[in-house]
Amino acid sequence: MKDQNLSQTGLCPERHELYKGCFDDMILELTNVDPEQGSLLSRIRDELNVTSDCQKQLYESSVSFGLNKAITARYQNEKLHARIDDILKEKMNLLDENEYLKRKVNAVKKDEEKKREREKARYQLELRRLKNRNEQIKRGLETCLLTGSEQVSCILLDAQQ
Fold this sequence. Notes:
Elements: H1 13-33, H2 35-147, H3 152-160
């Protein structure tokens, strides 16, 4: 092993082949001495090879499965990041629209307040005008009552104009 620079730990195919060759030689030697023990050792070697092959197959399968899972997770992660970006853009658009609508509502409120003030001023002016007219008619009627009833029609006609 030292001549071929084989490692003492981990998986090493060359070391495996070297041990396999040594084990086969040992089985051959033992079979010459005691065929029954050689046969048992041969069966043990075969079981060991089957177990080793199953473990290799399981390892390769698990590595493949792990890679597939990692690739799937990465793809899903990228999709989620893209979705997050889309949601953030939508959020910003909605916030901008919200600000626009708030400004629009405030402008409409101000316009309505101005209209209401103008209407109120117009109504107050109309009310003062009507009160003044009413007062003129009242004074005219009082004057007519004091002086006579012929002038009532003249005062009413003057007030209507």
